[in-house]
Amino acid sequence: MAGTSPAHTAAREADAAAARTVKAFQADGQHAEARDRFSELVARHQRRAGRIAYHYLRDGAEADEAVQDAFVKAYSHLSTFREELPFDVWFTRILINGCLDRIKARTRRERWLVPMGRVTGASEHAPAERDLTARVASGGPSPEDSVLSRERRRQIADALARLPARQRAVFVLSHVEGCTSREVSALTGLNESTVRVHLFRAIRKLRTLLAADRGTAAPAELKGKRRVTS
């Protein structure tokens, strides 16, 4: 997510143009046309939104629901969107807040429920998880670039799941989505110094967890990873 690249700038300009058109259609009561144009924004941002939601919620079905809810809310409240904040930042804030609300609700429910055990193994959402963990492990843009074993990816996924929600979010936005600390700040509402603290702690915790799992020193793929550019 290189904020200064021509492609990224063009994508944000396209988002802004689409949002303006949707707002105009909504204002004129042309709701079918508005929904049709909004679907372009959904298509551009759905996959990334799914990755972010999954890393918050660690459940594929719930992540899908969170993404759908976020798009519905974004469409319903598009009149409040102002172009000084890029659409992807505005939408991701909606998504993250929705995920945090779900985590809070889940925590409240779990206080009253006795766990019945979890089914382990592959799931229908395993490809999405492999995509994410491969990118975290390799530092590359796609699973095809990764040369790590499936077991190594599983270890990294497990370690990420054990991070506190804020640390996990900052790490994923920084190292998986490629955001700068300034962009992470805009996406999460945290100030940049807090983002840097969360990122430092996330990397330190991941190193500790992965080293403990392997009974070795900190893994090489996490050494030196302190992406705090602005």
- CATH topology name of the largest domain, in short, is Rna Polymerase Sigma Factor, Chain: A
User: β content, as a range?
Assistant: under 5%
Number of helices: 9
Structural class: mainly alpha
Tell me which CATH architecture of the largest domain applies here.
Orthogonal Bundle
Query: What's the count of strands?
Result: 0
Mean pLDDT: 79
Low-confidence stretches: 116-128, 144-148
Largest sheet: none
Q: Which CATH first-tier class of the largest domain would you pick?
A: Mainly Alpha
Principal-axes geometry comes out as: globular
Describe the structure.
It is globular, with a radius of gyration of 19 Å. It is 69% helix and 0% strand. It is mostly helical. It has 2 domains: 1-118, Rna Polymerase Sigma Factor, Chain: A (Orthogonal Bundle), CATH 1.10.1740.10; 122-230, Arc Repressor Mutant, subunit A (Orthogonal Bundle), CATH 1.10.10.
